[in-house]
Amino acid sequence: MSVLTKKQLERYKRNILLDGVGLEGQEKLLQAKVLVVGSGGLGSPAAYYLAAAGVGNIGLVDGDRVDLSNLQRQILHTTSDLGRPKTESARDKLIALNPDVNVTAIGEWLGEDNYRELITGFDLVVDGTDNFAVRFLINRACVEQRKPYIFGGVLGYTGQVMTIIPGRGPCLACIFRDVPPESAPSCSSIGVLGAVPGMIGTAEAAEAVKVILDLGEPLVGRLLTYDALTMRFYDIEIRRDQSCPVCGAMS
Ligand SMILES: [Zn+2]
Questions:
Q1: In the sheet where 33-37 sits, what is the strand order?
Q2: Distance (Å) from CA 195 to ligand 1 centroid
Q3: CA of 115 to the centre of ligand 1 (A)
Q4: Ligand 1 mean position, distance from CA 199 (Å)
Q5: How far is the CA of 126 from the centre of ligand 1 (A)?
Q6: Ligand 1 centroid to residue 52 C-alpha, Å
Q7: CA of 16 to the centre of ligand 1 (A)
Protein backbone atom coordinates (compact mmCIF):
# COMPACT_ATOMS: atom_id res chain seq x y z
CA MET A 1 0.00 0.00 0.00
CA SER A 2 1.46 3.30 -1.06
CA VAL A 3 1.78 6.20 1.35
CA LEU A 4 1.45 8.64 -1.54
CA THR A 5 -1.70 10.75 -1.76
CA LYS A 6 -3.88 10.79 -4.87
CA LYS A 7 -2.42 14.18 -5.82
CA GLN A 8 1.12 12.90 -5.39
CA LEU A 9 0.37 9.87 -7.54
CA GLU A 10 -0.78 12.28 -10.26
CA ARG A 11 2.06 14.79 -9.81
CA TYR A 12 4.78 12.14 -9.96
CA LYS A 13 3.11 9.88 -12.52
CA ARG A 14 5.94 10.17 -15.01
CA ASN A 15 8.58 9.44 -12.38
CA ILE A 16 6.63 6.45 -11.11
CA LEU A 17 6.29 5.07 -14.65
CA LEU A 18 10.07 4.98 -15.05
CA ASP A 19 11.81 1.66 -14.95
CA GLY A 20 13.79 1.69 -11.70
CA VAL A 21 11.67 4.35 -9.95
CA GLY A 22 8.11 3.20 -9.26
CA LEU A 23 6.24 3.97 -6.05
CA GLU A 24 9.12 2.86 -3.91
CA GLY A 25 11.55 5.17 -5.70
CA GLN A 26 9.18 8.11 -5.43
CA GLU A 27 8.79 7.54 -1.71
CA LYS A 28 12.58 7.45 -1.42
CA LEU A 29 12.85 10.78 -3.26
CA LEU A 30 10.30 12.32 -0.91
CA GLN A 31 12.39 11.18 2.07
CA ALA A 32 15.70 12.39 0.62
CA LYS A 33 17.62 15.32 2.09
CA VAL A 34 19.74 17.23 -0.40
CA LEU A 35 21.86 20.29 0.30
CA VAL A 36 22.35 22.61 -2.67
CA VAL A 37 25.26 24.95 -1.98
CA GLY A 38 24.75 28.15 -4.00
CA SER A 39 21.44 29.48 -5.32
CA GLY A 40 22.87 30.93 -8.53
CA GLY A 41 23.53 29.69 -12.05
CA LEU A 42 24.08 26.02 -11.15
CA GLY A 43 21.96 25.88 -8.01
CA SER A 44 18.89 27.29 -9.79
CA PRO A 45 18.34 24.51 -12.34
CA ALA A 46 19.63 21.85 -9.95
CA ALA A 47 17.26 22.80 -7.13
CA TYR A 48 14.38 23.39 -9.57
CA TYR A 49 14.58 19.89 -11.01
CA LEU A 50 15.10 18.30 -7.61
CA ALA A 51 11.99 20.06 -6.29
CA ALA A 52 10.01 19.15 -9.40
CA ALA A 53 11.03 15.50 -9.00
CA GLY A 54 9.74 15.53 -5.43
CA VAL A 55 13.02 15.44 -3.53
CA GLY A 56 11.30 16.10 -0.22
CA ASN A 57 13.91 18.04 1.75
CA ILE A 58 16.10 20.63 0.09
CA GLY A 59 18.53 22.87 1.92
CA LEU A 60 19.74 26.02 0.17
CA VAL A 61 22.94 27.74 1.32
CA ASP A 62 23.90 31.13 -0.08
CA GLY A 63 24.86 34.38 1.63
CA ASP A 64 24.24 36.53 -1.43
CA ARG A 65 21.40 38.79 -2.55
CA VAL A 66 19.85 38.91 -6.02
CA ASP A 67 21.63 41.34 -8.33
CA LEU A 68 20.57 42.47 -11.80
CA SER A 69 23.63 40.84 -13.40
CA ASN A 70 22.52 37.46 -11.98
CA LEU A 71 19.31 37.25 -13.99
CA GLN A 72 21.10 36.34 -17.24
CA ARG A 73 21.46 32.78 -15.90
CA GLN A 74 20.12 32.36 -12.34
CA ILE A 75 16.64 31.27 -13.35
CA LEU A 76 15.14 30.88 -9.87
CA HIS A 77 15.19 34.67 -9.48
CA THR A 78 13.12 37.31 -11.23
CA THR A 79 13.37 41.07 -11.69
CA SER A 80 11.04 41.64 -8.73
CA ASP A 81 13.47 39.71 -6.47
CA LEU A 82 16.32 42.22 -6.89
CA GLY A 83 17.95 42.89 -3.51
CA ARG A 84 16.31 39.89 -1.77
CA PRO A 85 18.42 37.14 -0.19
CA LYS A 86 18.91 34.50 -2.87
CA THR A 87 17.90 31.60 -0.62
CA GLU A 88 14.55 33.25 0.18
CA SER A 89 13.83 34.10 -3.44
CA ALA A 90 14.76 30.53 -4.43
CA ARG A 91 12.68 28.97 -1.64
CA ASP A 92 9.55 30.85 -2.80
CA LYS A 93 9.90 29.51 -6.37
CA LEU A 94 10.57 25.94 -5.26
CA ILE A 95 7.57 25.88 -2.94
CA ALA A 96 5.38 27.49 -5.62
CA LEU A 97 6.45 24.72 -7.99
CA ASN A 98 6.01 21.93 -5.47
CA PRO A 99 4.48 22.49 -2.01
CA ASP A 100 5.44 18.90 -1.06
CA VAL A 101 9.02 20.02 -0.69
CA ASN A 102 10.37 21.16 2.63
CA VAL A 103 12.86 23.91 1.72
CA THR A 104 15.31 25.24 4.29
CA ALA A 105 16.83 28.59 3.34
CA ILE A 106 20.21 29.10 4.97
CA GLY A 107 21.19 32.67 4.12
CA GLU A 108 24.87 32.38 4.96
CA TRP A 109 28.11 31.46 3.22
CA LEU A 110 29.55 28.00 3.63
CA GLY A 111 32.98 28.46 5.13
CA GLU A 112 35.68 27.04 7.41
CA ASP A 113 33.62 27.58 10.57
CA ASN A 114 30.34 25.94 9.51
CA TYR A 115 30.95 23.52 6.61
CA ARG A 116 30.88 20.27 8.59
CA GLU A 117 27.79 21.27 10.53
CA LEU A 118 25.87 22.48 7.46
CA ILE A 119 26.37 19.17 5.68
CA THR A 120 25.57 16.98 8.71
CA GLY A 121 21.80 16.98 8.32
CA PHE A 122 21.79 16.01 4.64
CA ASP A 123 22.28 12.79 2.64
CA LEU A 124 23.92 14.32 -0.41
CA VAL A 125 25.42 17.64 -1.53
CA VAL A 126 24.97 19.35 -4.90
CA ASP A 127 27.58 21.92 -5.88
CA GLY A 128 26.18 25.23 -7.07
CA THR A 129 29.18 27.32 -6.08
CA ASP A 130 31.60 29.35 -8.15
CA ASN A 131 34.46 28.99 -5.75
CA PHE A 132 37.10 26.28 -5.45
CA ALA A 133 37.93 27.00 -1.81
CA VAL A 134 34.27 26.26 -0.93
CA ARG A 135 34.28 23.14 -3.11
CA PHE A 136 37.30 21.79 -1.27
CA LEU A 137 35.49 22.27 2.06
CA ILE A 138 32.40 20.46 0.73
CA ASN A 139 34.61 17.69 -0.63
CA ARG A 140 36.39 17.29 2.69
CA ALA A 141 33.17 17.16 4.73
CA CYS A 142 31.55 14.73 2.28
CA VAL A 143 34.56 12.39 2.42
CA GLU A 144 34.60 12.57 6.24
CA GLN A 145 30.86 11.97 6.48
CA ARG A 146 30.84 9.45 3.58
CA LYS A 147 28.21 11.39 1.68
CA PRO A 148 27.90 11.69 -2.09
CA TYR A 149 28.89 15.05 -3.56
CA ILE A 150 27.89 16.11 -7.05
CA PHE A 151 30.58 18.49 -8.29
CA GLY A 152 29.73 21.02 -11.01
CA GLY A 153 31.55 23.99 -12.45
CA VAL A 154 31.20 26.38 -15.39
CA LEU A 155 33.34 28.95 -17.16
CA GLY A 156 32.73 30.76 -20.42
CA TYR A 157 31.20 28.25 -22.83
CA THR A 158 32.24 25.14 -20.94
CA GLY A 159 31.17 23.21 -17.91
CA GLN A 160 32.16 20.12 -15.95
CA VAL A 161 30.38 17.67 -13.73
CA MET A 162 31.46 14.65 -11.71
CA THR A 163 29.88 12.53 -8.99
CA ILE A 164 31.95 11.79 -5.93
CA ILE A 165 30.97 8.79 -3.85
CA PRO A 166 33.56 8.48 -1.07
CA GLY A 167 35.20 5.08 -1.14
CA ARG A 168 33.86 4.23 -4.61
CA GLY A 169 35.88 6.62 -6.73
CA PRO A 170 38.10 9.69 -6.72
CA CYS A 171 37.26 12.80 -4.73
CA LEU A 172 37.75 16.39 -5.87
CA ALA A 173 41.22 16.54 -4.30
CA CYS A 174 42.28 13.49 -6.34
CA ILE A 175 41.87 15.70 -9.45
CA PHE A 176 42.57 19.22 -8.30
CA ARG A 177 45.21 19.49 -5.62
CA ASP A 178 45.25 23.24 -5.00
CA VAL A 179 42.77 26.09 -4.99
CA PRO A 180 43.39 28.08 -8.22
CA PRO A 181 44.96 31.52 -7.66
CA GLU A 182 42.76 34.61 -7.37
CA SER A 183 43.98 35.69 -10.81
CA ALA A 184 42.59 32.53 -12.50
CA PRO A 185 39.81 33.19 -15.03
CA SER A 186 36.32 33.29 -13.48
CA CYS A 187 32.78 33.84 -14.77
CA SER A 188 32.95 37.40 -13.42
CA SER A 189 36.09 38.13 -15.46
CA ILE A 190 35.43 36.24 -18.72
CA GLY A 191 31.66 35.70 -18.62
CA VAL A 192 29.49 32.61 -18.95
CA LEU A 193 26.74 31.66 -21.37
CA GLY A 194 23.59 31.27 -19.25
CA ALA A 195 22.57 27.98 -20.82
CA VAL A 196 25.89 26.37 -19.77
CA PRO A 197 25.12 26.37 -16.02
CA GLY A 198 21.61 25.37 -17.11
CA MET A 199 23.02 22.22 -18.72
CA ILE A 200 25.47 21.44 -15.93
CA GLY A 201 23.04 22.15 -13.08
CA THR A 202 20.47 19.93 -14.79
CA ALA A 203 23.06 17.16 -15.15
CA GLU A 204 23.82 17.53 -11.44
CA ALA A 205 20.12 17.11 -10.59
CA ALA A 206 19.96 13.97 -12.75
CA GLU A 207 23.05 12.58 -11.01
CA ALA A 208 21.58 13.35 -7.57
CA VAL A 209 18.36 11.48 -8.41
CA LYS A 210 20.38 8.54 -9.78
CA VAL A 211 22.48 8.36 -6.62
CA ILE A 212 19.43 8.61 -4.31
CA LEU A 213 17.73 5.79 -6.20
CA ASP A 214 20.87 3.83 -7.06
CA LEU A 215 20.04 3.99 -10.76
CA GLY A 216 22.30 3.47 -13.77
CA GLU A 217 25.92 4.52 -13.82
CA PRO A 218 26.69 7.73 -11.98
CA LEU A 219 29.65 9.86 -13.09
CA VAL A 220 31.94 8.26 -10.51
CA GLY A 221 35.53 8.46 -11.72
CA ARG A 222 34.40 10.20 -14.91
CA LEU A 223 34.82 13.94 -15.28
CA LEU A 224 32.25 15.03 -17.86
CA THR A 225 33.08 18.16 -19.84
CA TYR A 226 30.57 20.03 -21.95
CA ASP A 227 31.57 22.54 -24.62
CA ALA A 228 28.67 24.67 -25.85
CA LEU A 229 30.64 26.04 -28.83
CA THR A 230 31.20 22.64 -30.41
CA MET A 231 28.18 21.11 -28.61
CA ARG A 232 30.32 18.19 -27.55
CA PHE A 233 30.27 16.22 -24.32
CA TYR A 234 33.25 14.10 -23.39
CA ASP A 235 34.26 12.31 -20.24
CA ILE A 236 37.72 11.66 -18.92
CA GLU A 237 38.44 8.70 -16.68
CA ILE A 238 39.88 9.76 -13.32
CA ARG A 239 41.37 7.33 -10.84
CA ARG A 240 41.59 7.58 -7.11
CA ASP A 241 44.93 8.93 -5.99
CA GLN A 242 46.21 6.74 -3.17
CA SER A 243 48.24 9.70 -1.88
CA CYS A 244 45.24 12.08 -1.96
CA PRO A 245 45.39 14.22 1.22
CA VAL A 246 41.61 14.00 1.62
CA CYS A 247 40.52 10.49 0.66
CA GLY A 248 43.88 8.66 0.34
CA ALA A 249 43.71 7.07 3.77
CA MET A 250 40.12 5.91 3.35
CA SER A 251 39.34 2.26 2.73
ZN1 LIG B 1 40.76 12.03 -3.07
A1: 102-106, 57-61, 33-37, 124-127, 149-155, 158-164, 222-227, 232-237
A2: 30
A3: 18
A4: 26
A5: 17
A6: 32
A7: 35
Phi/psi at 168 (nearest 5 deg)? -100, -20
Instruction: Tell me the CA–centroid distance for residue 245 and ligand 1, in Å.
Output: 7
Residues 61 and 109: their CA atoms lie apart, in Å, by 7
Ligand 1 centroid distance, CA of 130 (Å) = 20
- State yes or no: pLDDT of 161 exceeds 90: yes
pLDDT in tens, 109-159: 999 999 999 999 999 999 999 999 999 999 999 999 999 999 999 999 999
Which CATH superfamily does the domain covering 9-237 fall into?
NAD(P)-binding Rossmann-like Domain (3.40.50.720)
Q: What single-letter DSSP state applies at residue 181?
A: P
pLDDT value at residue 237: 97
d(CA 74, CA 239): 33
Measure 175 CA to ligand 1 centroid, in angstroms.
7
Model confidence at 7, in pLDDT bands (50, 70, 90)? Answer: very high
CB 91 within 8 A of CB 60: yes
Give pLDDT, residue 82. Answer: 98
pLDDT, tens only, 12-27: 999 999 999 999 999 9
Ligand 1: centre distance to CA 171 (Å)? 4
Q: Does pTM surpass 0.85?
A: yes
